[in-house]
Amino acid sequence: MPRPAPFAEILLLPLAFLLVLGGAARANTLVADLSEHEIKITTGFAGTELLLFGANQGAGNVIVIVSGPDSEVTVRKKSRVSGLWINTDSVRFDTVPGFYHVAATESLSASDLNEVLRENGVGFRYLNLNPADEIAPVQAATFREALLRRKEVLRLYAAKPGLIEVVGGGLFRTRVRFPANVPTGQYHVDVYHVVDGWVASTTSIPLTVHKVGMEASIFRFAHDYPALYGAVAILIAALAGYGAGMVFGRR
Amino acid sequence: MQLYLPIAEISVNVFLLLGMGGVIGFLSGMFGVGGGFLTTPALILIGIPPAVAVASGANQLVATSITGVIAHWRRRSVDFTMGAVLLCGGIVGSTIGVYVFKLLRELGQVDLMISLLYVVFLGAIGLLMFAESGRALLRSRRGTARRGKLHQHTWMHGLPFKIRFRRSRLYISALMPLTVGTLIGLLAALMGVGGGFIMVPAMIYLLGMPTSVVAGTSLFQILFVVANVTFLQAYTTQTVDLVLALVLLVGSVVGVQLGTLVGAKMSGPQFRILLALLVLATSTKLLLDLVIEPADLFSLQVADGNGH
User: Which of A11, A55, B83, B106 has its CA 20 to 30 A from that of A28?
Assistant: First the structure.
């Protein structure tokens, strides 16, 4: 999917400005929106980038947290058993966001950001990642670090927070990159306006990631009618093989 | 050009897949094996989840084996009686295999099992083939070709339920091909392969079938076994990626034709040595992966296998 064209941003920013002027009567107003509210996974999907833009009233900083659908994840650890590296330990985490991205305005220093995130219980390292079963805290921490690290490798979590650009007049914008392996489902996009280390106001933007067209049909078919799908898969392969045999066999 | 695979849920370069299909098809056309034992590791190497690689590999083999069976059927080199008996065992074995596969996946040991089976079987067969073809090559150089005993009688020939296999010119107990078929069906389901590279030696050395009917008969039974595996994987684990299988197929159809032409120009022992080296290289690579300490000891498994 192509990146949003620059002129789209030019059009969107005044729009955001109008939004904030409209709501200027109330104090501490925070408005924000995304360039798209759905990401469509098509045959040629190779990741995409969305523009998040908005405006806030008064001083303070902005933090954006994008988190994908939760799922159960098992983290496995290999160790050496008679010369071979084999999965031996595993820890299960019940609710792990499939995608997680944090962005903040530049004037919010890294230590301040961490402080704010921790105090409000929302940050990257403060995700509510608790093992499903009771285990020693040290072991839980090791596996939690491993989970975050593997997610970073898959580019589903970012190692460092992204940057929110402040354009002036309370306007801000940031880009959120979604890789090709982005999980499908309902996303939460939360924008926080932080004043003196406390969240003054928040707003949420809806975002859905879903497969469309042929990809969606094939996936639904495989999961809704597994027996029929199996039969069709065999039939298609058989016809292709038969066709090839006929075409090349005639010599 | 990137292509998003609906079941594997990753996007891959379509030319890379076509090329892979082509190279594997070329090798399988050249050596007369299904090529499944190369497809699965290659797919895993480019990042396809192992479960999807195994199931979609089986789906692709349905097509390749049908092409092969047609060619052999024209040359009347398929022993249908033998194929049917092997098949009965194959269906039982592959059904058990699919369920064992599902069980191991829940235990988190499926990758280990796939790798171990590959290392053991590819390693053993590669070594045997290398030794055998090396001796054959030396013998042909010295020009002292000796014929071994044509037919050896062992305890296996005392088993009941004897059947006459006309095209193979054999009169043996049905229990033998039934057992061979079951074991190979089991391996096929666990490794995502047709089992040709195990079946062919087993037919020659265990059952004593003449070489002329071996390839066609093994392809005939493999066709049904891989169809069964495809169906059961689609039904129980939903890991058959039709798009992936079809792209591989297009590449391999072309590759097979080129491979057959090249293969026809080589001498028997020469090509068996090359095949043995290929098999040994694959198994060594997989063995090293098991033995060398991985860069990250941790790995993730998202519930449901597909990230949902």
Answer: A11
Tokens of A4: 């949003």
The tokens for A121 are 């219980």
Domain with A240 in it: 212-251
According to the model, what pLDDT value does residue B192 have? 65
* B194 touches B188 (CB < 8 A): yes
Give DSSP secondary structure letters for B260-302.
Answer: HHHHHTS-HHHHHHHHHHHHHHHHHHHHHHHHSPPS-SEEEEE
Residue A227: per-residue pLDDT:
94
Predicted TM-score (pTM) of the model is 0.73
Which residue pairs from B8-16 have beta carbons closer than 8 angstroms and sit at least 24 positions apart in sequence? B8/B48, B8/B49, B8/B52, B8/B56, B8/B241, B8/B244, B9/A181, B9/B306, B9/B307, B10/A180, B10/A181, B10/B47, B10/B48, B11/A45, B11/A46, B11/A47, B11/A180, B11/A181, B12/B46, B12/B47, B12/B48, B14/B247, B16/B46
Mutation choice for A interface testing from B102, B299, B306 by most A CBs within 10 A: B299
Task: Tell me the CA distances in angstroms from B49 to A207, B43, B177, B187, one per residue in order.
Answer: 27, 8, 34, 19
Residues A32, A138: one domain?
Answer: yes
In the sheet that holds B298-302, the strands lie side by side as A84-97, A70-81, B298-302
Instruction: Count CB-CB contacts under 10 A for residue A156.
Output: 22
Residue of chain A whose Cα is closest to the Cα of B242:
A233
Of B234, B293, B302, the CB nearest to A226: B234
Query: Within chain A, which residues score under 70 in pLDDT?
Result: 1-28, 119-128, 249-251
Do residues A131 and A237 both lie within one domain? no
Give mean pLDDT, residues B78-85. 88
Dihedral of the CA atoms A243, A248, A250, A251 (nearest 10)? 180
Instruction: Count the alpha carbons within 13 Å of A38 in the hemisphere toward its beta carbon.
Output: 7
Percent of chain A with pLDDT over 70: 83
Tell me, yes or no, whether A60 and A174 share the same domain: yes
Instruction: Summarize the confidence of residues B275-293 as an average pLDDT.
Output: 84
List CB contacts (< 8 A) between A242 and chain B: 66-67, 70
Domain-located, residue A1: no
Taking the mean position of all CA atoms in its chain, how far away is CA B192? 8
Residues A108 and A230 in one domain: no
Tokens 């229990």 belong to B175
Averaged pLDDT for residues B80-105: 87
Residue B308 has pLDDT above 80, yes or no: no
Domain count for chain A: 2
CA atoms of A133 and A131, how far apart (whole Å): 5
Chain B residues with CB-CB distance to A86 below 8 A: 109, 112
Measured CA to CA, the distance from residue A174 to residue A30 in angstroms comes to: 15
Q: How far is B176 from chain A (nearest CA, A)?
A: 29
Closest CA to B307 of A74, A44, A46: A74
Residue B261's CB: how many other CB atoms inside 10 A?
A: 12
CATH number at residue A65: 2.60.40.1930
Q: How far, in Å, CA of B260 to CA of B33, rounded?
A: 11
